[in-house]
Amino acid sequence: MNSKEIEEQLDQFLLKVQKPGRYVGGEFNSVHKNPDTIKTRIALAFPDIYDLGVPNLGLSIFYDQLNQMDNVWAERTYLPWEDMEMEMRNRNIPLYTLESKTPLDKMDIIGITIPYESLYTNVLNLLDLAQIPIFSKDRSEGYPLIIAGGHSTFNPEPMSAFIDVFVIGEGEEVITDIIRIYQLWKSLSKPKFELLHEISQLEGVYIPAFYEPEYHADGTLARLNPLYPDVKQKIRKRIVPILPPPPKHFVVPLIDVVQNRVAIEIMRGCTRGCRFCQAGFVTRPVRERPLEQIIESIETSVNETGHEEIALLSLSSSDYTQIQSLVSKLHDIYNKRKLNISLPSLRIDTVSVDILEQLRGSRFSGFTLAPEAASEKIKHTINKHISEDQLLETVDMIFSHGWQTIKLYFMIGLPEETLDDVQAIADLCIKVIKIGRKHIGKRSQLNLGISTFVPKPHTPFQWAKADDPEKILEKQKLLKDALSTPGIKITWSQSDITMFESWSSRGDRRQSSVIYRAWQLGAKFDAWQDHFHKEAWIQAFEENHLDPNFYIHRERSENEVFPWDHIDTGVSKKILRKEYELSLKGELREDCRNGCYGCGINQSFAAIRAESPDAKWFCPSIATRHSED
Amino acid sequence: MNRYRITYQKTGPLRYISHLDLQKIWIRTLLRAKIPLAYTQGFHPVPKISPGWPLALGWNGFGEMIDLWFDFDNINPNYEITEKNLSDRINQNAPQGLNIVNLQLIPIYSPALTTITQSAVYEINFFTQISPDELRIKMEALFATPSIIRSRRNKPYDLKPLIEEYSFNQEQDINTIMKIQMAARDSAMGRPDEVVDALGLNFDQIRYSRLCFILASS
């Protein structure tokens, strides 16, 4: 089916599906080029619906960046919702790009972002809807090159059977390297193997087909063997020494999506070292964007999009060194304009309340804080220590300044946690709501988000087991009973989905066949609570003679080889282990910008750093570093 | 404050965008064009815009209308305000399928579009699924009945008085096309797809377009 036929078909049935505006393109700032002048055509894919995909910052960056190249055209595609999928399958319409309605199999490259594991089955569905063979090995010469990146690919193994090329780490530079190699390869019409081989020589790229795993009798990994002599043993993630300027052009959706706003990353990386947080370890080193650049790009993107909301993103906004002057500048410029500025991930202190008060727009109603733990013990375990006084003082200030709603995030199921630690959460929440009642009476509202801890690769907790479901239920019940008082509302993470995240995030290569089978049995949209198909997954595990508990509830030995050990984030496994041991001993580790403890990032990227002497990383210069091991 | 009455096209991908989403698109388009909208007074100020009758999803609009209030006090003083400048600037900042065809200054306190709209003219394209003669015979038969009772939200109403005029193909048309003028008032809203349904024509492919509104001469 060609673009014209697809367009004619769409006109015949689009009115039957919900929100047809998802499927027609035509957005302001979407890019149209003349295909005759294009050497390389790329589809950027988000494996969930349009509403979630359009706000994705990663794809917005690539879309803007790639379309600035004259001979490249990057288009977008998203997964259709079920009603649309049914119509498309019935009419044999392949998944197409929104801009030109070109079927995906006519692209040179398909770049898929996989930020979280619950999109795995959606990736399979996306390929299938595009009428492209799902397994990498079944895609002969004529098919597009399938590239994947995003946070979940820091453990690429579960998806290794489906993806040709994984981009590990930051994609801004490596994507153009890949395109350059692709263009040369295509002009020489060489076999696909040559293309993959060339790409495998790049930093930050992993070609799973070039490796083969070997397992011990107990099912743990013995090693991952490279199949060719010149293929890297370890794949070091790619980083950019200095953050490039944020994208200039954002696609402005024609329909309401989950976040109708412009997102600007003010800082990448984090020095706090919270032991549960994968992002905190895999996005090091810390790099800030200059203040002037942020102000300028807010101005440009507001003018370019007409959006009335801006989100300034980072893992820990308060750590942005010029946060105060950024906020007061924004206040001066935008306080008369009807612009909402949101600044998530602020530290829990009264300064943050001042900051948010300055940014407070007309629709600003609530305040979100993430203490994660309440008992002293667990605060030490996870290395996120906010004193109770500090929290309560902040809460007092929030309610006394007239805010009515506070949202607090906590985590349960952490290593070493007992019912006493969970009781501490309940006690703390009661104190919080009492402060609210003191100031504003019954209007005060505490919304609690209680999530269940999932041990993640590349964190100190990668050795830990996930908590037993019965214990989780018991802990949830404790909170439910203790906090059933007016003014407190609790949302939980669903236990099935927690389980799913636990096995898929630390999965190995054998899980590819589990994912494939689960998809065949109807699993898709796993991130959507009511769509999670537990039975399909359990059956898929059984048929592949694998036990989900092997991945979820097993404490790993110190020397176990992990399926993601060949992915080198720059932070050493030794230091992660050390952190795990400190965590079991209940020892805190200070913010590492106040004292380097040699995580490894600095040495790993010493060469890159040397090339850009202006790069400020909050790491000591190599010569003066004092290591404790 | 200045009030402009804008006639525009809503075609292409924009056909699939709802009335409500379209109002947000107008606001974002004007923000990008840096033409300051006037805001309502009150605790939650919202831009002053007032659209004409909604167009059904999937239909082309060739003469849609909307009233917008501009606050020229806040515009860049170097910008020369002319009708052409305004509509060019809006068109440059509009998404694919939204196009201004006319822009006209009107008195600030004149009545709302929906109040003065009398009728709307539609074009129904049947492609080649029926011949013009067949269609004419069917339409005449339908019109010969004393009333055409239809039901809307479970309430019966007579469609016949809502149909004001109709005509068939022009010579150059390859497809079978009916043009129909129907009442478009709050109390009497005629829908061309109801006429097609009353004719019993259930084709896969029928393209509806609203060509223009007819306003009461004020």
From TrEMBL, chain A:
Classification via InterPro entries: CHP03960_rSAM, Elp3/MiaA/NifB-like_rSAM, Radical_SAM_N2, rSAM, rSAM_horseshoe, rSAM_sf
GO molecular function, one term: iron-sulfur cluster binding
Family annotation (CDD domains): Radical_SAM
Domain Radical SAM core: 256-489
NCBIfam families per record: rSAM_fuse_unch
Designated name of the protein: Radical SAM family uncharacterized protein
Species this protein is from: Flexilinea flocculi
Lineage, broadest ranks: Bacteria, Bacillati, Chloroflexota, Anaerolineae, Anaerolineales
TrEMBL record, chain B:
Pfam annotation, one family: DUF2344
Residue ranges constituting the DUF2344 domain according to the UniProt record: 3-181
InterPro entries registered for this protein in UniProt: DUF2344 (IPR018768)
Name this protein carries in UniProt: Radical SAM-linked protein
Organism expressing this protein natively: Flexilinea flocculi
